[in-house]
Design a protein that fits this description.
3 domains, single chain, mainly alpha
């Protein structure tokens, strides 16, 4: 195939035909472009103007804000200066009032202190005079002292110990010995004024001699020994074989006339070796078992221990009743033909005759009398308390306390600075 080429003569004609429309289009396009440029320029100017306006507005706002803050600071400083000035004036006023009140109070204290010093000095002078007088009297009495005082005090001490011995230990023997020693001290005084006291001392001695002496320790030791012998006491156990044994003698006689009796004895002896028949009449008493025997001895031991407690606690009724029960058990359950049981019963009888309790006196008549004599001989107080001096001692302290409480009414506490300062927040 061959390519077909258009003829060259036709190309210029076509170019001429297309030039006219292209020119028209170019003019229209140029007109549109110029219009667009104008609009764009005007829009750019408006944007710049708006931006400048916004910047100016922001600057004015910032300047106004800083100006307002500066005004607030100036106002705050001014108010603070006013408050400080007012507080300073108030403080100076209160300080002056307090200083004046303190000066007046110091004057009052000085005056009261002078009065108190005068009163205390007078009181001390009076007391020194009384003490000197008392010392002089004591010195004179010491120089003129006699041994009768300590002998009388020693006699009172001995009588007091005797009373405590009777009350606590119930020992009449020791109390009588102490009273006799006290009587010898009173006799050494060789003063008829103490004869009534000696008479009462002898009366107390006689009354104590009539009182029983309690052997409580011996009773307790005896009961403890008897308690250990209970296990060896034989009980009253019935022996049936011993009662049934005949006491007929089976011995043969040498007399020929007793041949019949001898024959009978021989026959009886022959029968006893093979067959034994016994007859018993009367009531048969039951035998005591080993457990009952053990329980009986244990109960007897408990009874003796109860008697021991009653003797140590000085319970006379319980002591006597317990010994009676023990004697009853011995006579009923134990063999009194045995020597051991007889000695045991005799020991209980001796214990029953002794006393374990007695109402002893808690005081002695001679003790009251000798204490009265000592009280009468005692020297009265040489130093009598001066009422005025004591009042003078108590009054200053009271006055000083009242003066401390008497604070001036004007001296009230200062107001705090923060109470006067107003709030500055939110003024503008």
């Amino acid at each position: 195939m061959t390519d077909k080429k258009p003829p060259l003569a036709t190309e210029p004609a076509k170019n001429t035909a297309t030039q006219a429309p292209v020119t028209k289009k170019t003019k229209a396009t140029a007109t549109k472009v110029s219009t667009k440029d104008t609009v764009a320029k005007s829009q750019n100017k408006m944007s710049k103007l708006a931006l400048v306006t916004i910047v100016i507005a922001l600057g004015v706002t910032a300047i106004h804000y800083f100006w307002q803050q500066q005004q607030n600071q100036l106002l705050t400083i001014k108010l603070s200066e006013q408050i400080d000035h007012k507080n300073t004036a108030t403080f100076n006023q209160y300080q002056a009032e307090i200083k004046q009140a303190l000066i007046e109070q110091q004057k009052i204290f000085t005056k009261q202190l002078q009065q108190v010093t005068t009163q205390v000095s007078d009181s001390n002078q009076a007391k020194m005079t009384e003490l000197n007088t008392a010392v002089s009297q004591l010195e004179r009495k010491a120089k003129q002292g006699q041994p009768s005082d300590w002998l009388l005090h020693e006699a009172e001490y001995l009588i007091r110990i005797a009373a405590r011995t009777i009350w606590l230990e119930h020992d009449t023997t020791a109390a009588i010995g102490l009273l006799k020693d006290a009587d010898s001290r009173l006799a050494d005084l060789n003063d008829p004024a103490f004869l009534p006291i000696r008479e009462l001392v002898h009366l107390d001695i006689k009354s104590l001699e009539l009182m029983p002496t309690l052997q409580t320790d011996e009773i307790i030791l005896t009961l403890m020994a008897l308690n250990k012998q209970v296990a060896m006491l034989p009980l009253a156990i019935m022996d049936v074989d011993a009662e049934m044994d005949t006491k007929t003698s089976l011995e043969l006689s040498n007399n020929l006339k007793d041949w019949q009796a001898n024959l009978t004895k021989t026959w009886q002896k022959f029968l006893d070796d093979f067959i034994r028949v016994r007859q018993r009449t009367g009531l048969i008493e039951p035998l005591t078992s080993p457990e009952q025997q053990q329980h009986l001895k244990q109960n007897l031991t408990l009874k003796i221990q109860l008697a021991l407690w009653a003797a140590s606690e000085r319970k006379g009724d319980i002591y006597q009743k317990t010994l009676t029960d023990i004697q009853h058990w011995l006579t009923e359950f134990f063999d009194l033909e045995e020597a051991v049981n007889q000695h045991f019963l005799n020991a209980l009888t001796n214990l029953q005759t002794q006393r374990v309790s007695y109402v002893y006196p808690s005081d002695l008549t001679s003790l009251t009398a000798i204490r009265t004599a000592l009280k009468n001989q005692a020297t009265k107080p040489l130093i009598s308390p001066n009422k005025k001096a004591s009042d003078a001692e108590g009054t200053p302290l009271k006055k000083v306390g009242d003066a401390v409480k008497a604070t001036p009414e004007k001296a009230s506490p200062l107001p705090k600075k923060q109470d006067i300062q107003p709030k500055v927040e939110g003024i503008i």
